[in-house]
Amino acid sequence: MDNDNTFDENEEKNPEEGFNPDNSPADDNADVAKISPLKGMYRTWFLDYASYVILERAVPHINDGLKPVQRRILHAMRRMDDGRFNKVANIIGFTMQFHPHGDASIGDALVQLGQKELLIDTQGNWGNIFTGDSSAAPRYIEARLTKFAHEVIFNPKTTLWKPTYDGRNKEPITLPVKFPLLLAQGVEGIAVGLASKILPHNFNELIDASIHYLKDEPFELYPDFPTGGVADVSRYNDGIRGGAVKVRAKISKLDAKTLIVSDIPFGKTTTTLIESILKAVEKGKIKIKKIDDNTALNVEIMIHLPGGTSPDKTIDALYAFTDCEVSISPNSCLIKENKPCFIGVTEILKTNTDNTVHLLTRELEIRKDELEEAWHASSLERIFIENKIYQRIEECETFEAIIQTIDHGLKPFTSQLRRDVTRDDIIKLTEIKIKRISRYDANKADEILIALEEEMEQVEYHLQNIIPYSIDYYKRLKKQFGSKFPRKTEIRNLENIEASKVVVKNEKLYINREEGFVGTALRKDEYVCECSDIDDIIIFYKDGRYVITKVQDKAFVGNNVIHLAIFKRNDNRTIYNLAYRDGKHGATYVKRFAVTGITRDKEYNVTKGTDGSEVLYFSANPNGEAEIIKVTLRPRPRIRNLIFEYNMGDLAVKGRNAQGNILSKNEVNKIVLKRKGESTLGGRKIWYEPEVLRLNADGRGTYLGEFHNEDSIIVVTKDGHFYQTNFDLSNHYEDNILVIEKFHSETVWSAVYFDADQNYYYIKRFQAEPGNKPQRFIGDHPKSRLVRLTKVDYPRLEIRFGGDDKNREKEIVEVAEFINVKGFKAKGKRLTTFQVSKINELEPIVKPEVVRNETTDEEPPSTSHDNNQEEDENDGQMSIF
User: Fold this and answer.
1) Spatial distance between the Cα atoms of 195 and 7, rounded to a whole number of angstroms
2) Measured distance CA(342)–CA(334) in Å, rounded
3) Do the Cβ atoms of 265 and 130 come closer than 8 Å?
4) pLDDT tens digits, 284-315
5) CB of 199 within 8 A of CB of 328?
C-alpha cells in the first residue's frame, strides 16, 4: 500500500465518521481518495447492528412481552381473522409485509407460539414439545387466534402505530396487552452482547399475583413448565441473572425392575433424555437393561433394570449423571423505554399490571368520549326534529345559508347540551334523510338518551373505582380461561445427590505394594475392593502420612502403604484407631479420629510430624467401633508389666490433627488386636430395600430402626421360619420374606396355620428365640402353610365357613383368651373342626396401655402380615387365601 493511503493513528478523526460509498474527491484528478478509518467504521456499524438485533429481533418488550416477529405475526393474524382457520403458509406470506427477515424466521416463531397453546388455536401436525418432532410444512397446517388472544391483546383504539419497514403499511409499536403475557409464555433470545431467558409461569398464579398487587398484598411467582417435572426454586432469585432453578424428571417405580419417566425437564426432549441415559450406561455410571420410548400424547419412557439392581439407587443415579436433572439459569432481560434492562419477574408483573390498569382506564375514557358524542348527537337530532328546524332551511339558496339558519335555530336550546355546537355537528344534521325525520319517534329517542346516560354513569363509576374494576377484569379472565391452565410443575425442595454414592461400581481397585502402584488396570496384583471411576481413595502410610486422590488406571503412590480404601466425603461414622511412636525413640500415643473433608492430592500427617515417627497400630472402623488392644513393651530394667491391655473406647473421637493420649513412655515392641469393641457413636439407622433384598443406611426402602451393637434383625419367611441376623450392610436376604424388622425378645407373635398332619387350622402364640439358624414354627410337615401372622397384643380373628358348613354363622375368636403364650415349637390349639373359607383379622377391642417400647425415631410396626396381601372387600383386612 502506498504511504499516502496509510492511516495515521495520531491524526484527528471524527469518531462518528463512517464509510460513505458515495464520497468522491472534489477534484476528479485528485491523486488521493478519501479513506474512512476501519476503527471508525467498526465503532458505528457494530453499534448500529447490535442495537438493531437487541431492539428489533431478540429481546421482548416489557409492555406486551413480545419480540417484533411475534408481534407482527399476531397483528397479521388479526388483520386476516374471519373466525376460520388459515393456512400457516398464507399467514407467513401476509406477515412478510410487516417483517423484513424472510419466511423461515416467521414460520419458526409461529410454530413456537402455537405450541404454547395460549394465543393460537392450531390444526394439523404442529410437532411435539416432548419428543422434539418438528411440525409439518406450513402448507399442511392451519391456525387462528384464540378467544383469549381476542380478549386481551387487540384494541386499535389504544394501539400506537408506526410505519412498516417499507412505508406501505402501519404496524403496532406494541400491542395493548392486558395480561402479563411475557411471564405466561416465557422467552429465550440471544442478541449481541446479551441474552434473555425468562421462564414461563402459571396462568392462574399470574392473575392471582396481579390481584394481590392491586390489593397491596404480598405475592410470590415461580416457574411452571409445559413439560411438567419437579422444580426446586429456592435459588430462583426472582428470575434475575445469577439465580438457578433445578428441574427434575418425574420417575416412578412400576415394579422392582421397571422405572417410568412421566415428565421431562424443561428444554429437553425424550430423544435427548434417552441419549444422555445411554451415554451414562456406556460410561458405566448406571446399569440398565433396555429403554422403551412410548411417548405419544403424554411422556412415557420405560427403563428396564437388570436383576439385583436397586431402583431407588438407579433413580438417584439418573438424576446425578443424565439430563433427568438439569439446572436452568434465568436471565430476565427485556426492552423498557427503548433500551435493554434487567429486572425481576416481580417488577415485570407489577409493570404489566400497571399497564393493564392504564389500558383499562384508556378504554373507559374512550368509551366515555364515544358515549358523550352519541348523547350529543342524539340530543341535537331530537332538538333539530322536534322543533322543526329543518323546515327553516327550505328557502335557503346556499349551503352556507343552510348552516347559518340551523345554527341560529339551535341557539335557544344550547343550554340543554353538554358542549358547544360545531360546524361538523350542523353538517351531520343536514345529512339526515327526510324518511328518517318522518318516522322519528320521540319516546324511542328518550329511551336511547336514558340508556346512554346510564352507561355514562357506569363508565364514570368504573373510572373512579379503577382498581376494583381491574380486579374484576382479572377475575373474569380467570373464570373464563383459568381451567385450561392447571399447574404442571411440582414445586419441591430437592436434595443434592452425591454422585459417588449412586454411581455403579464399574471398576476394581488393585495395589502393587512392592512397586508402589495403585489403580484399576493392575489386574494381576492384589485386589482391594470394587470402585467407580469417579471415586476418591484414601491411602495411609507407615510413617503417618495420608493422602486422598482420584481413582486412576495406574498411579504411583509409593511404598509402606498400611491402608487403602474408598474415601467417603463427610463420613462421620468411619473412625480410625491409631497408635504411633513419636520420632525414633519417643513416647507412643493413641488417638481416634475421622477424616470427613480434605483437599485432594495434598499430603497430611496423623502423627506430630517428628522425623522417624511410625504407626504401630491402625484400624478403620465403618461404624465407629473401638477395640481392646494388647500392648507388648520391650524388656527393660524396672518395668514390671511388659504386657497390658488398653481399651480404645476410653478415647474421645477428635480431629485428625490432635496429638492423642500417651499410651506408654517406654519403647513398644508390638501392638495387636485383643478384642473387637462396640461402636461409640450411638445407634445406626438402618433401612431395608425389598427390591434388592439388602440393608442400607442411605434412607432407601423400609425404615427398620436405630441399631446398636447388641441389636439384631428378625426375619420371618412366608414358609413359616424365623431367624435373626446382624445389621451388617453386606447382608443379602432371600425373596420369601414376610416380616423383617428390629428384633425385640418380648414381642408376642400370633400365628394361624394349616396343619397338614391333622388337616385343621391351628393358632399359636409364641415369642421368637434368638438364633441365626432358621426355626420353623408351623410344624415339620412340608405341606403345612402359614395363613396369618400378627403381633398386636390382643388380636381378634373372624372365621368364615365354607363347603358343607357355608351356612354356619361366622365365628369371632379373641386370641389372647383362646390360647396362652407358649414356646414356638408348641403345636398350638385347633381353631375349629368345621370347613373354613377364610380367616380375617379384625380391629382389636382391648387396647394395650403401652403400644410399644421402642425409641421414638422408629416407625410403628404394621399389625399384620400375609403372603399375597389379597384384601378382603368386606372388612378391609388382609387375607392370604
Assistant:
1) 36
2) 7
3) no
4) 889 999 999 999 889 999 999 998 888 888 99
5) yes
Helix (H, G, I), strand (E, B) or coil at 861: coil
Whole-model pTM: value is: 0.74
Question: Per-residue b/e over 792-817, b at no fewer than 16 CB within 10 Å?
Answer: bbebbbbbbbeeeeeebeeeebebbe
Residue 697 is predicted with a pLDDT of 84
pLDDT value at residue 33:
52
C-alpha cell at 707: 441399631
Three-point CA angle 683, 689, 693, nearest 5°: 110
CA distance 152 to 148: 6
Determine the 3-state secondary structure of 644 from DSSP: strand
Length of the chain, in residues: 881
3-state SS record for 60-116: CECCCCCCHHHHHHHHHHHHHCCCCCEEHHHHHHHHCCCCCCCHHHHHHHHHHHHHC
Cα-based angle 452, 455, 459 (whole degrees, multiple of 5): 135
Please state, in angstroms and rounded to a whole number, the distance separating the CA atoms of residues 539 and 562: 8
Q: Is 481 helix (H, G, I), strand (E, B) or coil?
A: helix
Rounded Cα distance between 277 and 275, Å, is 5
DSSP codes joined into one string, 669-729? EEEEEEEEEEESS--EEEEEETTTTEEESSS-SEEEEEE-TT--EEEEETTSEEEEE---T
Reported as type and span, the H/E element at residue 120 is strand 120-123
Residue 9's pLDDT band (cuts 50, 70, 90): very low
User: What element of type H or E holds 261?
Assistant: strand 258-263
Using CA of residue 273, residue 275, residue 278, residue 284, what is the dihedral sign? negative
- What's the rounded Cα separation, in Å, for the pair 713 and 723? 8
- Dist. CA 508–CA 771, nearest whole Å: 35
Is 140 an annotated catalytic residue?
yes
Q: Quick check: 236 pLDDT over 80? A: yes
Given 140, 165, 461, 527, the catalytic residue = 140
Beta bridge mates, 345: none
Annotation: CATH topology of 245-328 = Gyrase A; domain 2 (3.30.1360)
Q: Tell me the pLDDT tens digit for each residue of 27-78.
A: 444 444 566 676 666 667 777 777 778 777 788 999 999 999 999 999 999 9
Q: How many angstroms separate the CA atoms of 296 and 130, rounded?
A: 9
What distances in angstroms separate CA 465 from CA 178, 352, 454, one per listed residue? 18, 19, 17
Answer yes or no: is pLDDT of 169 > 60.
Answer: yes
- State the amino acid at position 118 in one-letter form: L
Enumerate the domain spans of the chain.
245-328, 505-679, 699-879
Nearest to 187 by CA among 196, 179, 178: 196
Tell me what pLDDT residue 708 has.
Answer: 82
* Cell numbers 430476565: residue: 332
